[in-house]
Amino acid sequence: MFDINNLLRENIKTLKPYSSARDEYQGEASVFLDANENAFGSPLDQSYNRYPDPLQYDVKMRLSEIKGVPARNIFLGNGSDEAIDILFRSFCNPGVDNVILVPPTYGMYEVSANINDIAIKRVPLTEEYQLNLEGIAEAIDAKTKLIFICSPNNPTGNSMNRDDVETLLANFNGLVVVDEAYINFSRQKTFIQELTEYANLVVLQTLSKAWGLAGLRVGMAFASEEIIEVMNRVKPPYNVNEASQQLALKALQNIDQVNNWIRETLIQRDKLVLELKNFDFVVDIYPSDANFILVKTTDARGIYNFLVGKGIIVRDRSKVELCEGCLRITVGTPDENITLLQTLQDYK
User: Fold this and answer.
1) Spatial distance between the Cα atoms of 107 and 139, rounded to a whole number of angstroms
2) Tell me, what DSSP letter sits at residue 94?
3) How do 292-297 and 326-330 pair as beta strands?
4) Listed residue (109, 111, 122, 129) closest to 177, CA to CA
5) Of 34, 77, 123, 248, which residue is least crowded by CB atoms under 10 Å?
6) Interior CA angle at 241 toward 205 and 19, to 5°?
């Protein structure tokens, strides 16, 4: 039976969060003399002299409308990376606990685990890039606190079998973190809809991919109210800046534009796959539910270096477990994709 108190670090259970100036009053105010800000404004066209809303209320309310989940079940962070780090710092005791990763997967899980001195148990995906449930079950022990699952997966692009993820959620007493950074491009539905079914579920999403706001660094975590409350206690008081909040809120009004870009990205992805298959050095192209494709080649490093020399940057994943010989190629604009294909015609 999942019990958050069995997972929380003892110091987090008793943690008294920093109380910011804006946390200490209720109601409306027009004169702010509490936070030692510059009262005269900012040397910019728009003033940013006031600290931002520490809990990003307006952005969360808009996300609540879009995602169909209460605002109290939403955490906003400085990118999804902050949410990942806070999960480690809240639930994993350094030098004691461990987490399970399923490579090949997003590299920041391992980096964050190493920063927080948390042991890693690796259970590689199957040859079909799906979860090895038997291997995961064998790896779990009394000190396993988190399992990270990226779906659609980076760098392979495929979605994980939904039944397999639900099997873990139903049988693991720690947190199952489902990273859905690329969910907008997927045929699968989001796991956000399962929050009421699984108390140990955390879903990560981002505004960096389909929403085109990578430069603003706004990540999201969706979970039970008690998990979100813990994350809000651990985070820095003003972790999402005012400019990011304002611009994110403005962007979240433009769903039609984003949906048009998603449709065009999927069209361009299919075209890119068809064209790449014509090259002799392409061995395989794996099915993708993301805005990128994983391409197995005869000489990944050579092709990568050739493209760099032409000013075209893709990602060499050939040294990643189960991705030998592979390049990860993001789907670009029609013109960018044509430039890539025309350039590859000159590769010998």
Assistant:
1) 20
2) T
3) antiparallel
4) 109
5) 34
6) 100
Residues whose CB is less than 8 angstroms from the CB of residue 319 and which lie 6 or more positions away in sequence, other chains included = none
Instruction: Region of 105 please: left (phi>0), alpha (psi -120 to 50) or beta.
Output: beta
Question: pLDDT tens digits for 56-88?
Answer: 999 999 999 999 999 999 999 999 999 999 999
Contact present, 120 and 110 (Cβ < 8 Å) = yes
What are residue 305's phi and psi, to 5 degrees? Answer: -65, -40
Can you tell me the distance from the alpha carbon of 323 to that of 320, in angstroms, rounded to the nearest whole number?
A: 5
- pLDDT tens-place string over residues 114-172: 999 999 999 999 999 999 999 999 999 999 999 999 999 999 999 999 999 999 999 99
Q: Is the pLDDT of residue 188 over 80?
A: yes
Residues 6 or more apart in contact with residue 223 via CB below 8 angstroms: 73, 75, 195, 201, 202, 203, 231
In this structure, how many other beta carbons lie within 10 angstroms of the beta carbon of residue 301? 13
* Per-residue pLDDT reduced to its tens digit, 249-284: 999 999 999 999 999 999 999 999 999 999 999 999
Secondary structure letter of residue 290 according to DSSP: S
194: number of CA atoms within 13 Å, CB side? 18
User: Which domains are assigned to the chain?
Assistant: 4-251 (3.40.640.10), 256-344 (3.90.1150.10)
DSSP-assigned letter for residue 210: T
Q: Say what angle helices 334-344 and 300-309 make with each other, to 10 degrees.
A: 110
Tens digit of each residue's pLDDT (9 = 90 or more) over 170-187: 999 999 999 999 999 999
| Average pLDDT score, the chain | 96
What Rg value do the Cα atoms of the chain yield, rounded? 22
In the structure encoding, which two tokens stand for residue 241, read together?
């800046």
Beta sheet of 315-316, edge-to-edge order: 282-285, 292-297, 326-330, 315-316
- Asked if 248 contacts 207 with a C-beta cutoff of 8 angstroms, the reply is yes
